[in-house]
Amino acid sequence: MLMAAKFYAFHLTGSSAVFSDALESIINVVASAFAFASIVLAAKPPDKSHPYGHGKVEYFSAGFEGALIIIAAVGIFKTGWDHFIRPQSLPNLAEGLYILLGAGLINLILGLVLVRAGKKTESLALRADGKHILTDVITSAGVLAALLLVHLTGLYWLDGAVACMVGFSILYTGISLVKESYAGLMDKAEPALLKEISALLKKHRKNIWAGIHELKAFRSGNFINVSLHLILPRDFTLEEAHRESEVVEMVIRDHFKGRASVLVHTDPCADPDCPACRRHTCELRKKMETGVSTWTAETLISERRGKPPLWN
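User: That's the sequence. What structure does it adopt?
Assistant: Structure tokens below.
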């Protein structure tokens, strides 16, 4: 309905700025349908064919939506430039203003709801769709301002100028979505996520955990994949080492409410690990505990070299 209303406003006014708004609405409809399909698919649990789940389809959805926005931006700029260098009179401006105002208010509410829902559920597809709709609101606001100025001043070239600015504005949004999609598909490291996991493990540390290294984590939709190396006393039995691995896995999975896959590789301690180990009775100890801590996200993601990260 919103798309039809905007095209009707374009039919009434012949404004290139209104056309830019209407064209973006077509992209909204297509992108929303694609986002809905990707959310349904991403919600499916892992299976034999997709052991890490289906969450990455949301990144593909966001990239697809970003590409559509970029295409629309190019079309909008072209039309706006034509009207800028060859201004045309715009009839029925008052009617067009009222239609765009109503459509813009509805889109504002819808966009805010989708972005909020996307943040709450950690759904990139929902956030991307909500951001896209909010860019539509910005477009509508710019178009309304342009039509009002044209109506008051009779400067018809403003119509094309605003359409060009709208094109540049949504082009930026489209490029941002494509970059975010690319980062997700390529499993780009998230410093904030690594810091969150590091702080979590530090909070739940045990005296016998001498250190952690090679911590890796990436998102797949709203699912988290984590792997790390845990240093344990080298006289531990296989059963004891396995039990400590399960503790680490449980801490991380519980924190992310079950939406995490955790792989823990256990390493036997060496003499340089003694200062970090708080094991009360240890026949293996060659060095006293120092109590010095360098356990941060930066040290936990690094490879084990000499001394491991130390606990507080």
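Confidence is low (pLDDT under 50) at residues 307-312.
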